[in-house]
């Protein structure tokens, strides 16, 4: 395989998870007990042996930088290549580029110095375990200019409403790109393209006032490009709202969903050396994901408990997500709640949301 260059662009990803994105960008939102949303695409790139990854970010990236570090969990702590975190740095007063294209234009040295001949572009909102090597192989065999990745979903959900849809013919050629609500072919914000073509298209798009590569180059200029489609058939979830975050998180408590995401290969994340969870005499756990480092002496049912959580005697956690180092004190009750990091729920408090509208508690709150 010719070297691939990874590009993860977060510029157009809005902070749609309300309280969960008050202090962080969406890519660094915790997920599934021990991960962050960005871990999944980074793991996919690692398994494709991509050794250079550029991350383009604009705002709220402190938490993300802390999580990524030097990229070691994804084999990106390298002397040659590695993880390149590229926040905004606009030094050219004559630059007329806008939006996502401004990132690419102002970091041409990253693209020029990287050895990869092909770019694998992705965002972070679509959780999947795509085999990028298969996408690249199909791209080369089809002799396409661009190969976009899509998922044909069985049932359309509210989180799909804002997604771009594709029309694909029997030869895997894209014949339409739009947002028709009844189309089940969901574009997964991932594509493969030759690097030199990508850079040429960036310059052309900037010259015509564009700001977003997929929309202004691939979607609007489809008639001038041969656009192929790769159908992904594995686990897929779109995280673009509090409701979609809660629903897809709780779906992982179903064995079949969990195995589809984690059963094939490991997802890499920041390593934290913590003791195993300690279950005290009154602890009762049923159908839950519990990470390491917790101390539990209460009831946990149908819930996801992240690392280092303390649940005291008499507390009850039902249908909820409790993130790192939160504390639920004695006899507190929470149900249908998403609790961000470092939250303290005082004794005898009751917090309750609804399955369709979970109650969200912002980071470091004391209730």
Automatic annotation (TrEMBL):
InterPro entries noted in UniProt: ADP-Glc_PPase, GlgDAde_trans, GlmU/GlgC-like_hexapep, NTP_transferase_dom, Nucleotide-diphossugar_trans, Trimer_LpxA-like_sf
SUPFAM superfamilies: Nucleotide-diphospho-sugar transferases (SSF53448), Trimeric LpxA-like enzymes (SSF51161)
Gene3D superfamilies: Hexapeptide repeat proteins, Spore Coat Polysaccharide Biosynthesis Protein SpsA, Chain A
The entry's keywords: Glycogen biosynthesis, Nucleotidyltransferase, Transferase
Principal EC category: transferase
Keyword presence, ATP-binding: no
EC number, UniProt record: 2.7.7.27
Annotated GO biological process: glycogen biosynthetic process
CDD domains tied to this protein: ADP_Glucose_PP (cd02508), LbH_G1P_AT_C (cd04651)
Origin species: Paenibacillus anaericanus
Glucose-1-phosphate adenylyltransferase/Bifunctional protein GlmU-like C-terminal hexapeptide domain: residues covered: 283-349
Record-annotated Nucleotidyl transferase domain positions: 17-221
GO molecular function per UniProt: glucose-1-phosphate adenylyltransferase activity
Keyword Transmembrane helix: no
Protein name per Swiss-Prot or TrEMBL: Glucose-1-phosphate adenylyltransferase subunit GlgD
Family classification: Belongs to the bacterial/plant glucose-1-phosphate adenylyltransferase family.
């Amino acid at each position: 395989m010719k070297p691939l260059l990874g590009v993860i662009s977060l510029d157009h990803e809005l902070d749609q998870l309300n309280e969960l994105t008050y202090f962080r960008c969406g890519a660094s939102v915790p997920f599934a007990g021990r991960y962050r949303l960005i871990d999944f695409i980074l793991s996919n790139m690692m398994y494709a042996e991509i050794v250079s990854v550029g991350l383009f970010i604009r705002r709220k990236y402190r938490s993300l930088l802390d999580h990524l570090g030097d990229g070691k969990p994804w084999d990106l702590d390298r002397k040659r290549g590695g993880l390149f975190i590229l926040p905004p740095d606009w030094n050219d007063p004559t630059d007329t580029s806008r939006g996502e294209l401004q990132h690419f234009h102002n970091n041409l040295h990253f693209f020029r110095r990287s050895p990869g001949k092909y770019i694998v572009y992705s965002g972070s909102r679509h959780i999947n375990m795509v085999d990028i090597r298969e996408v690249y192989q199909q791209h080369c065999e089809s002799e396409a200019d661009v190969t976009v990745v899509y998922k044909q979903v069985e049932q359309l959900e509210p989180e799909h409403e804002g997604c771009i849809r594709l029309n694909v013919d029997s030869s895997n050629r894209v014949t339409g790109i739009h947002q028709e609500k009844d189309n089940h072919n969901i574009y997964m914000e991932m594509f493969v393209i030759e690097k030199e073509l990508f850079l040429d298209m960036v310059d052309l798009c900037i010259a015509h006032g564009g700001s977003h590569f997929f929309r202004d180059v691939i979607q609007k200029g489809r008639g001038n490009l041969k656009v192929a489609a790769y159908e992904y058939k594995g686990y897929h979830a779109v995280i673009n709202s509090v409701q979609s975050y809660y629903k897809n998180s709780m779906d992982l408590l179903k064995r079949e969903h969990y195995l589809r995401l984690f059963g094939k290969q490991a997802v890499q994340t920041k390593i934290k050396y913590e003791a195993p969870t300690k279950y005290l005499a009154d602890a009762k756990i049923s159908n839950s994901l519990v990470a390491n480092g917790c101390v539990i002496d209460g009831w946990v049912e149908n819930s996801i408990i992240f690392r280092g959580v303390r649940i005291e005697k008499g507390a009850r956690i039902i249908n909820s997500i409790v993130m790192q180092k939160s504390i639920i004190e004695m006899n507190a009750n929470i149900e249908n709640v998403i609790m961000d990091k470092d939250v303290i729920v005082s004794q005898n408090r009751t917090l309750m949301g609804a399955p369709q509208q979970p109650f969200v508690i912002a980071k470091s709150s004391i209730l």
